[in-house]
Amino acid sequence: MMRLPPFLYVSPRTVAEAAKAVAEAGPGGMLVAGGTDLYPNMKRRQFEPTTLVGLAAVRELRGVRGSAREGVTLGATTILSAVATHPDLLRHYPALATAAGLVSSPQLRNMGTLGGNVCVDTRCNYYNQPYPWRKAVGFCMKKDGDICLVAPGSRRCWAVSSSDTAPVLWSLGARVRLVSASGERTIPIDALFRDDGIEYLAKRPDEILTEIVLPPAEGWASTYLKLRRRGSFDFPELGVAVALRLEDATVAQARIVLGAVASQPRPATKAARALVGQRLTPDVIAHVADLAAGPARPLDNTDFTHPYRKKMTRVFVARALGRLAGLERAGRDEEELA
Amino acid sequence: MTPQFAVVGKSTPKRDGVEKVTGRTRYLHDLALPRMAHGRILRARFPHARIVSIDATRARALPGVLVVLTGEDVEQHPFGFAKDQLALKRGKTCCIRDEVAAVAAETPEIAEAALALIDVEYTELPAVFDPRAALAPGAPLVHEHLSGNLTHLRYQFTHGDVDGACAGAAATVDGEYRLNFVSTACLGTMVAVADWNLDDRLTMHSTTQVPFLYQRDLAQALGIGGERVRVLQPPVGGNFGRGLDLYPIDVIAALLSRAVRRPVKIEFDRMEEFMAAPGREPCVIRLRTAASADGRLLARDAHVVIDNGAYVSWGSTTPHVMLSTVAGLYRCPNVRFDTTIAYTNNPYSGSMRGYGNLESTFAVESQMDDLADRLGLDRLEFRRRNATKPGDANPQGFAITSCALGECLDTVGEDAGRDVPAPRPGWKRGVGYAGMFHVAGGARIYRSDGCGAIVKLDDFGAVSLITGASEIGQGSETVLAMIVAEALGVPLERVAVVNSDTAVKPWDVGAHASRTTFIAGNAARLAAEDLRRRLLAMAAAFFEEPAERLEIREGWVFVRDEPQRREPYDRIVRAGHYRDGGRALVAEAFYDPPSTMLDKDLHGNVSAAYGFAAQAAVVDVDPETGAVEVRRIVSAHDVGRALNPAAAEGQIHGGIHMGLGYALAEKLVVEEGHVLSATFMDYALLRAADMPALAVRLIESVDAEGPFGAKGLGESGVIPVSAAVANAIHDAIGVRFTELPITPARVRAALARR
Does domain A1-59 correspond to CATH entry 3.30.70.100? Predict the structure, then answer.
């Protein structure tokens, strides 16, 4: 039966109280914000926390401050629908608003938070299943088992990073603030992730992601394209985040980050480097798209076949660049694939 | 002249609508009886395995467990279409669904925990998962007492000279069409609440949609008389054909209740629903169609292979309907049809909305386009040229009475491209058409295709229709009340419908074959007309006028020529009741349509009326990604008469949703007998936001036999969708897909191959 197991719910009012509570809860403790991913996962026994420290009542964690000129700070529990519709974000950090607006369904965007999406659990066809299903196939190493069912013989877990906002934030050069009972640190968002399906965050369990800090947006253009099965609903099968700084129609700085192709967002560094100093002509775009598809190594553990997802990486990178170049044939925010 | 109606023909909100959308409906899931225990079923670990031993000692010792039953513990009798399964399996498991043991406990949690404490030792057996492989020499036997894996079902039909016609044809096309497992994906999972009381009578609260057949089948499976079983039908969250058979869940709930002498509820969770609820059968249709140079169909030759799964349920009887489309969708003078239906160790399939017709229409309509192309004819014109017309008798002997197929084709042809924005740059636009032929006046697959109705009118003017029909969300309560209000001449809100208790309601076959409006509607109309005569007789005494001079309209009884002489109808009822020799008003009727069962050669006139429809799909295809976006569907339906137009449109919308899922997204992944897509994350049901613009056109051919001219349409929306979409994709990119669902990866791969 897919019902929540019993657990203790703690509802602190401040970050300090929350940090204390999660430290006290020990290994059985977990943080929960919107709960849109965690609770269903608990029903399937992918997580079995004894204590949940809820962040919903911590008001200082919610809201958007700052400006495009100085940089914007987003509270980690700002809900996704607020991020998606925020006028400054829409204008100056459009890729972020787009990505937030493409997470799941309207109901879940009204509950789910930006921090929750950044930290969302990695996914795999063999892992995101009800307990009896996982038991029937023989559990995998991510939960209750020892082996990887996607790549038997593998010593690591290949579950897939499934955040829409994380690759965008990476491409925008965001930093994240982590607070614990023993102190705090602010790190570049790329240092938050690890290429491991199980230990996919470098954040310690007792650290709370409190803020996401965006650098000044001036001169930057950004976009995000998402591949998924149904346009209404699904996790990304591929995310392409591109941020460019153009000087007189020439690329001065570029970042391309792919989502859902590895256990963490994956920068297409070589492709981005090849853009610098170039104008966004169709030839340049085609060349860069080929380079960008290189780092995408999808495995056969999500919807769609992995050769298809790999091929789509090239198509989507080209479309994202085409859109930023204002060329025809640019894709839409989302690719509705049913 | 169009008759003037007071009630029918006006869009009327569904009676269960407000309660459902405000969350007030008490579904069967919500039912809790005093002292109710909770049952859970332990299922097979392997699709094909010998059960060496079952040790339930630890489960029985768990506090709160009331009983653990296995196949060896209880008396039970085989049930199902071929009487080939026991509810609790004995000796071996034949598919992953198989019920190995069952627990009743104080709470669902305890019952669940107890399952983990039942120790079953298995010896795995070689298994077979493909019907062709199942028929190969030396294949493992699914049922060892049978000589092979071929089921006893075979549907063979011949009419005319197919080989001769093909030999003389200007063009023939051949194809093999592959259809996969899909689920009904009902929001309400399967539930059974059994209450076996101390005087040995069983009350079942069930999701069945055939309560009287269920009553009989359940009694037989339990070895008791049908008179000891009462079936109650609380609101269900969808059925779509799922409720057409008796399933182990029902028998097991009853066995558990008998064992513990308490009510027992078994409720599937979502994973169990995907795994254990029957869906649409997987099949391979090999089809050849031949036509003359002037675009006349000459012949169709079809062979269908069905993966029966481990036990025979209604899924393997769908060739009945597949044949009727092969022989009856458009005029086709020569027809041959045959089937191969084999047992495998896969899950078995039940009936599901459309009942084989989606599958055969996909094949038949794909070939209509291919033939038109081969002959250089306009695809719509080719269909028009072969369209069935009123007065036709088709190769099976179906007598076509009302028929507006030509008008349906014209309508979608004119309407298809309207209001569709241009495709995005680079995307390819295509338009595809498909017609549809389905029973619409019942389907005589039993000796009786009837339904009973009782109408009673009380002193307050309240009318109760007690109908055999089952409400499963399709809107039958509303339309039947409308029919009674219209026939009686009283306001709609005075009519209540009673329809959920076999101890009260008269017999009916059940909600299947799009038959309820037609059959139950005619029964209700006949009973209401009889009641009206009785009421008029009372009024005649009241007004001291002959009944012929009296009229009932909008709740008033009046003298036709002197309308100022009028009384509220309930006053007439009271006057007729509270007097010497007074009477109460009750009337009944039983309607069994003028149709025949098919004979052994599959000839006959199975329905009293036939339904026709045509759909156009406008799709855009992105060649780079393979994405298919359906922009608009126009669906024109010959409905006889639309009694409740909004409900008719809603049925068609729902059907199109189901059909689009079948065409593009839904697939129950079954590998080596295991059901892998067991959540709504993996099983891609389309959401509201995925739906295209829909335009429904209701075309009224006014059927002479139907109630107020109406014909059935519960299934007709879903049937042509996948064919129309596949044809539209072919129109857009020139690729013919012969397997569903048509996913972006498959579209792109097909384009890359060219």
Answer: no
